[in-house]
Amino acid sequence: MRCREPATATVQVDTGHVRVTRWDFNPGAETGWHRHGWLYVVVPVTDGTLLIELPGGQTLTAELKAGVAYSRDAGVEHNVVNAGAAPLSFVETEVKGLPG
To answer: By the 8 A CB rule, do 45 and 89 touch?
Structure first.
């Protein structure tokens, strides 16, 4: 069993339509295992390297560039770890179900 420092999640907006959370990671910090219930968009605040732990023991790395956004569909399950030597931050916007 691994014990890592938790990343800090600060909810900035939470409405019926979206939730915006800023994530701040010290080196080696993690989100903890979670599953995304909604489509989400991530905008890195800083450059950095993430280690993504996936179900079944698989891992991958992702290079973040400040200001370069990416999105993922609902259903993604993972643990996200700051694999770099410097703190990193990103803002995650979850899009809640909308009629239409």
So the answer is: yes
Torsion of CA 49, 54, 59, 63, to 10 degrees: -20
Give the CATH number of the domain where residue 36 resides: 2.60.120.10
Q: Is residue 15 part of a domain?
A: yes
Residue 14 is part of which domain span?
Answer: 8-95
pTM of the model: 0.92
Q: Count the Cβ atoms, other than its own, within 10 Å of residue 93.
A: 18
Strands 48-53 and 59-64: antiparallel
Q: CB-based contacts of 36: which residues, under 8 Å, 6+ apart? A: 72, 74, 75, 76, 77, 94
Nearest by Cα to 92 from 22, 37, 30:
22
Q: What is the pLDDT of residues 11-68, one digit of tens each?
A: 999 999 999 999 999 999 999 999 999 999 999 999 999 999 999 999 999 999 999 9
